[in-house]
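[job 0417] fold request received: Protein kinase domain-containing protein
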Amino acid sequence: MLRAPPDSLFPFRHIHKPNSLLRTRTTRICCKASLITNSDSFEVGRLIGSYGFMNITSSSGSPLGEDTEYSSGDLGRLRVQDVGEGSVKIRLYDGRVSQGPLKGTPVVFKVYPGQRAGGNEADMMAANELNAHLFLQNSSNGICQNLAILVGGFETKTGEQWLAFRNHGKSSAADYAKVMSEKVSRNRAAGVWNKFEQEETIKRRRYFVTKLLQGIMRGLAYMHDHDRLHQSLGPASVILNTITERDAAYLVPRLRDLAFSVDIGYSNLEGDPGLLSEGLWRRASTAGAFTPMEKRAFGISDDIYEAGLLLAYLAFVPFCEAGIMDGLSLQRLLESTFQLDLGATRDYV
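[job 0417] inference complete; emitting structure tokens
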């Protein structure tokens, strides 16, 4: 069964009964959410993959949080900053709902390690992600199609937290960029040169990337409108239902990975910030944001800054040869070399 986190990490008042639905209630909005919390209601399939987080202990003026997602290979390219791998490693599995009204629904399991493997941080991240999805899915405005949908979850005997999300696709924006950049490299290596075909490919890619960015911004705007920051926005945190550019009309990007999401409701900003958001509010204080209104504005601008870096990533990487540019190198180029001067960046490009 899914263990209810401590009240300090899980602000909903909750009632939890074995083999029953988890019902939640918040003081801001009277709402109910039903999750499948019985492990017997799921079937677990193959391991899809795993990923983790990196901790940037020092950086040259980067306003990003201390916890940022990385993909394999990124650490070796970050030479200027002091970087270490986070202690929490996430595993992803295929699966489906095996009984009940949602029987047959495909899901992706996101598995947080137990305390013995991931420490208290893993439990805090799992509780925070659960809390964020419950709140956002309980909105009176309905569920946003640009956010991943939580179906349920459970805890194993070893303390692992398994969160089950609807399977709307397994490829991320990072996977899309990698596939497209490799395609550019293959075409150039093969000497493929058809001007008309190349122009059509670029048009399709621009349209796909534009629609991808529109979906990302809609998802982020929805979160901000509902008093939530993402705080871990990057190419790996955007899941896609297709990476085929000819199917761009059916593309629906969805934001995932809300483990570092922050509640920016005014009542929360006046209380204890919580361990996972300490870094954000420390940077806010350094920037001179002290009142709840100032802190809220700083937090939203911090998310928008991350969205801007993601925009730059998607504007460059899918159009470049493989290995020419990556997210960390691009961020360092924008922040250190060009000092965030967009005019100078355009001249360089």
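[job 0417] notes: The radius of gyration is 21 Å. The mean pLDDT is 82.
[job 0417] exit 0
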